[in-house]
Amino acid sequence: MATVFMKWLEMRPQNYDRGIRLLTLGRLELLQAQIVDRLVGEGMRVLEIGCGTCALAIAMAEKGAQVMAIDLSPTMLAEAERRINQVGLEERINLKLMDASLIGDQFEAGSFDLVVSSLAFSEMAPQARVYVLQECLRLLVPDGKLAILDETLPERFIARLMVGLIRLPLCLLTWFLTRTTPHHLQDFESMLSNAGFSEEVVISHLGGSLQLIIASPADKVASYMLPATVLGRLRHRTTLRTLLLDLWATFFRILPPYPKVHPGLYVVGQPDPGSPVLITGNFELTVRRLVRAIDNRMDAWVLVVDSAGINVWCAAGGGFFTAEKVIGALRVSDLEGIVGHRALILPQLCANGVDGWRIRQETGWDVNWGPVRAEDIPDYVVSGGVKTDAMRWVQFPIKDRLEMVTVTLGFYSLLILLPIAIFWRTLFWPILVSLVGLSYFYAVVLPWLPGRDGLAKSVPLTLISLVGLLVYIVFWDPLLGQHIFNWVLGLTALSVFTAAELQGMSPLMRGEQGNWGWEAVIGAALGLTYWLVPYALGWR
Amino acid sequence: MPKSPTMQSLLKEHWELARTLRRLEIHFDSERCRGVWQCYEVCPVGNWAPDYDRMVAIFRNGKQCIACGACILQCPERAIELRIPDA
What we know:
heterodimer, A: 540 residues, alpha/beta, seven-stranded mixed sheet, 22 helices, elongated, B: 87 residues, alpha+beta, two-stranded antiparallel ribbon, 3 helices
């Protein structure tokens, strides 16, 4: 939780150490003492990245180490120089104003026994982190050590939530003061192993949000580097952000702006040149569901294509997800230089808009249409690309039906209920209850209703209500109250509407636009009935 | 300047689109089929099946068709079309 305050503290270097001590509840000092005790010895050559006011560098120099201390901030270095002069360690500590990504240019390979960094990696851009780690590997002697002390994202969800809540005000403050947001080290273990280190010791404090990681150069065989065009590793995680996005997606998925993923090449797991290449659109929920389905089950290259933040089926149908977009993304990502094969796996449900033959002819990549559901991808890949009929045919099970009905209800409530709540308040609750009730009723009974489109499926309920009306007139009250009459008409209209809307929610029925004509006719008929029958019966 | 659409023309356009979408049917020219079976690969409602003996695709059930156009786009022989039946 400290680094969110860093930028602010850096403007006041005199307060820096005190502020950091406060923010980490003294844990940072404990961990820095661990570094000095465990790793530092007489005559060792040490590089400190992001030395700040040199508290750690001074402690290491006092134990006999020769320290090269670099930092980005001139004010911090000035304060550091003042302190070093105070304790008389000018001989043992060299200060240098330098960006961490330049260490490879400035120092010789194998010129340090130890590289330490305290709260500096969380300030670097994610791409810079791996690069700096790789450079660290080069600067270290073979039996050297790397000690990173920084903010990390706790593994457990509750701890993560707590840290998030504590950080929120600090993040806001830092942002207002400096317009920057430091990022927790996320998934640092795999970043270390990507750079060629193997982790040895991890000491956690503050619920896992502050960690000291000690690592040493790994055997060259195990080292693994991500190609330069890879934007990052996608992992399945539940965080406050994903929960909020899920909450939005539950009700307002169909309203723009759609949450998006930056298009480009990503990895899932640790793919090698033989691993499959999966292509998908850049709707945030699409990417997250794909990753949820395959993370920990397979290693893959995932090429996220700009589909305007729309799911693959609708984006392909609407011309936002096309062969050109896929070809462009292939070029930009330099996949040809990264993988050894030429086989793409595209989502089957983008075949209505992505011209497979154009991709094949213009790029030489083969196009394979993968399964409909991401859950089937690992099995599909393991079987060598055998797609069973269950994988290729769209099902619309009860779980999906309930989800999609909820999604459209969020939209209705804005479209229909908001005006009613404002102008026609007495009808708000009756219409809300009818709308919700009818929508879920249709979602549940959909497969057992006759017909292959939403309008046809609304016929039975409409008939029942009209027969009910007739029975009421014949057996109870031939004069028919206007109240009952209005209710039957209103429910019929809602019933037709909700059933017809079901049609657009899965690639199982034709587009709901096919209903527009009939919806207009039915609407007009109901409106006329509402208008004329009261005259005929003498109510008006 | 292009004429701005009137209420009437918009309604007519919607009506035509709706009418077309409801009536479209798959027209399959099996003479041209070479058995690449991309239609089978991409159809989400299971309208197509491979015939491995004759190396052609079989159009199974027109009633299922949702007129998504995937088989038409992916057929290398352009053997599939969506048509309005009486046209």
